[in-house]
Amino acid sequence: MADDHSYLRKGLSQELESVGYGSIQTCNDGRAAIRMLEHEDLDIALLDIEMPHYNGFEIAEYCQLKSISTPIIFLSYHKEKSYVAAAKKIGVRGFMLKEDPIQQIDICIQHVMRGLRYFSEAFGGELFNHLNNELENLQLLTKSEKRILQQIASGKSSAEISALLRISKRTVEKHRSNIISKLDPPDAPFSLHQWASKNKNLIEKL
Questions:
Q1: Does residue 135 fall inside a structural domain?
Q2: Which of 40, 116, 166, 199 is the most buried (most CB within 10 A)?
Q3: Does residue 115 sit in the same domain as residue 17?
Q4: What is the pLDDT of residues 62-110, one digit of tens each?
Q5: pLDDT tens for each residue of 139-185
Q6: What is the count of structural domains for the chain?
Q7: Per the domain annotation, does 37 fall within a domain?
Q8: Tens of pLDDT along 97-113?
Q9: pTM metric for this prediction
Q10: Is 155 left (phi over 0), alpha (psi -120 to 50) or beta?
Q11: 31 lies in the same domain as 72
Q12: Considering the domain boundaries, does residue 98 fall inside one?
């Protein structure tokens, strides 16, 4: 388990031990978590998302790159759908909230150890249907459209994107139109910047 809050590490370790888990190894930052994943034979990894040195997403991507097969569960305060969607996209097997009871975290661990996925009940099934649709729509974007969307998510205007990518503003606007058509964000076209900003974590993984 990796979390930079010592009270949470200690408390959750004790709770997991109380429901039958033994040999719980803990660390307090992303760098130590990577070392543990590389050198220890772990059944599962519980990772906070925001930690010093490397965050949970960076660790999960590193594991993919290095073919480290330890299943990963995120344990976080973040409830934003963009975090959940980004976690699903990079193969995280579970996503629980720090406020979830130990019984639910236990259920998540058991599901993941059986090769299944499990996400906090707080997210609800309706969210996952919505996320699946958004993930499918994002895959419809061309490589150029993805590059434009990433720049939009970072807050750049069409003129700034035009200068940065050395393409005409008219070309940028055409890509914007295609992106809106494929993603169908609410209140388009005026909300594309807002939608991209909210989903920045997911868009960065395109």
A1: no
A2: 199
A3: yes
A4: 999 999 999 999 999 988 877 888 888 888 999 999 999 999 999 999 9
A5: 888 999 999 999 998 889 999 999 999 999 999 999 989 988 888 77
A6: 2
A7: yes
A8: 999 999 999 999 999 99
A9: 0.68
A10: left
A11: yes
A12: yes
Q: Using CA atoms, how far apart are residues 165 and 204, in angstroms rounded to an integer?
A: 17
Q: What is the CATH number of the domain that holds 154?
A: 1.10.10.10
Q: Judge whether residue 189 has pLDDT over 60.
A: no
Range of the domain at 155: 140-203
Residue 45, SS3 per DSSP: strand
In 3D, which of 193, 195, 89, 167 has the Cα closest to residue 135? 89
Q: Locate tokens 């609410």: which residue?
A: 186
CA nearest to 56, candidates 41, 75, 35: 75
| 71 within domain boundaries | yes
Which residues partner with 27 through β-bridges? Answer: 2
| Cβ neighbours of residue 68 closer than 8 Å, sequence gap 6 or more | 37, 38, 62
Q: In residues, how long is the chain?
A: 206
